[in-house]
Model the fold of this input.
Amino acid sequence: MQNTLEKTENKKLLAWVSEIETMCKPNAVYWCDGSKEEYDRLMKQMLDSGMATKLDSQKRPNSYLFRSHPSDVARVEDRTYISTKNKEDAGPTNNWKDPQELKETMKGLYNGCMKGRTMYIIPFSMGPIGSPIAKIGVEITDSPYVVVNMHIMARVGQKVLNVLGKDGDFIPCLHSVGAPLKEGQQDSNWPCAPIEQKYISHFPEEKTIWSYGSGYGGNALLGKKCLALRIASSIAKEEGWMAEHMLILRLTNPQGKKYHIAAAFPSACGKTNLAMLQPTIEGWKCECIGDDISWMKIGQDGRLYAINPEAGFFGVAPGTSYKSNPMAMDTIRENTIFTNCVLTKDNDIWWEGMDNPCEGGIDWKGNPWTPESGTDGAHANARFTTPAKQCPTICSDWENPNGVPIDIFIFGGRRSSVVPLVSQAYSWDHGVFLGATSASEATAAALDVKSKLRRDPFAMLPFCGYNMADYWQHWFEMGDKLGDKAPKVFYVNWFRKSSEGKFMWPGFGDNSRVLKWMCERIENKASSNETPLGYMPLVKDLDLSNLDISESTINELLKVDKEAWKNELPDIEEYFAKFGDKLPARMKAQLKELRNRLG
Ligand code: O2Y
Ligand code: MN
Done:
């Protein structure tokens, strides 16, 4: 196999590669250079083996479809571990295992796990190469699918090794699909291990990741959730910065003033749609900087600067359409990897919720499929992996190594009632309380069952690499450091429903109306109403021009139902009680203040 990489003299890296080669016993070792030639060669290899399907070159140039094993379709939270010496350091929201015990188990699995396969070494940078906020990782994997996805999602190859130099440090990320091949054994199209052998393990004290048994998404592309959130959040606490599950966007007003917004939402709240928002209000412009993760450091001027550590989008496909997100649809027109979508009769891809119906084709399991089949053609977690630079609204500063200064933080959740359209925190501490208590409704299976709330603090529940209560304390302390330069904090709920069960707020591009109010608030240009929940707009403060919405609907969206909020308090208390003595005193103080304001 060709390998043009000059490689490295980095001692730690060479020693680690040699140790892993001895343990995993691959047939060959390959250093990835991140070139187009390498990408094309690996794709050709996967086409020849039947793992990949090339899509029609006219309709979807340079794009491919993969189908995963039906048991390997999403992140496996039950098999994801934060392994610290003391259980308390992982906290009550993470799965914990003792590091020695977990390593023993995993070493047993890793022993000889790459037999019959090539071991790929992927040097990658999360963040623009050489940025003071970026970090270097090296992923060792036996999956060529992971290599091509990492080409899109991170900056990969020799340039990274050059920055690493002889003595530079990196985060070791070990991955195996967990399916060694016997002599002469035919490989499957999606090798992986059974669920009870899957482990997505994080050792924050050693800043190391070990993943075994899954080839899918966040379990296998280790730069993303494992490094850029779980390990990075733990490093960020240690080093005094922030690694957050947040999109980043730039909003420019008609006078040309730029505002930068970072926003955290649990899944299924339209995060990618908001990142690629197209304002419906006259003269306002929105540009995308990132759709999932934000790394933020305090700059020399005392403000908080954010970079998107990723180079691509790993977006959920079903529901993405020209109606819901035209920018995403344009981004994926070429050079894109699709996983678990329908292959149409004309060799393109399709999923539920796309603009046009599909006549039929091959479903995500590889079976003939028509809309009449009675099953979904695409898996609900089908994905596209696509270069961020292809987004038509990508911001000219998206790769600025110094990042962009954040003016506004937004938290949110999906609530059909109780939570109003928007409120502004009274203070940083109040904002931390809003982030910590953010929640979405898990849809009740039966209509008469009260929906259960799923608390997802800062949208970090599956991604915080240490004790969540310590994470909250870190947020309070970052506020102390930022002082009056701290971003202002808002909470939104785009998902209020009427008594007839219809969404009351139009959402999508019209969310720009709410963002406009936020920008005017930080300029002290918009008035507000002091409510128990925070500052809220009066109807006159929202730009509702050319919007068909009734006065009663908007009043309802901005209403504070004190009694309903009083009913929320026990649930918040119960949630906080999980954290015992670790719960920061400042969080308790915020709960007390809310109770007092509700009267
Ligand atoms: O199922 C997966 O592995 C993907 S999860 C994911 C992908 C992109 C952005 N966000 C997420 C998430 O779970 O938050
Ligand atoms: Mn995410």
Remarks:
- The pocket of manganese (II) ion (ligand 2) is lined by residues 245, 292 (CB under 6 Å).
- Residues 313-390 form a domain with the Phosphoenolpyruvate Carboxykinase; domain 2 fold (CATH 2.170.8.10).
- The chain has three domains: 11-51+76-240, 243-308+398-598, 313-390.
- The chain has a mean pLDDT of 96.
